[in-house]
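Working notes for the structural subgroup meeting. M.R. asked for a predicted model of this chain before we commit to crystallization trials. I am recording the input and output together here so anyone reviewing the notebook later can reproduce the run.

Input as submitted:
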Amino acid sequence: MTLEQREIAFRKEVQEVGGFIYTKQMMENFSGFWSEPDRGKKPKMRFEKEPTWDTKRRLGTWARNNFDNIRCFLTDGEKSIAQKRHAFAVCLEPYLEKYGKTILNAFYLYWSQPENKKNPENLRWEEQEFWSLEVRLSQWAERTSPDFNLKHSK
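Returned structure, recorded in token form:
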């Protein structure tokens, strides 16, 4: 791949990894810094010279350090419904082993529904006065699966 193709692939990866969390400006600053090429015959970008690289972790460190003194994280109001649904799904992943796919999928489908208005801004769970994911999940599992407590009480 050419340098240009590798840079495009890198910027796409940054967007895929951080697009639901970080502001466009922060990701652009990050990409600009780490995609800077050297002056070699076969140029390498700065990130390609690193002995280890994990884009997700590097983005997190970049945002925490915030040397640019900019706002790095998207606010809930800036996130689209799709981004909010994705973030909600990610929050459910740690519970997969405990509750199983069937219960989590039903829970997700119900609580990730957008408001019933022309331009929804919130998901159903965001409209609740009190929200504890763990409490809601355990109650959901008890109500929807009569043998859940038998399987998981051991």
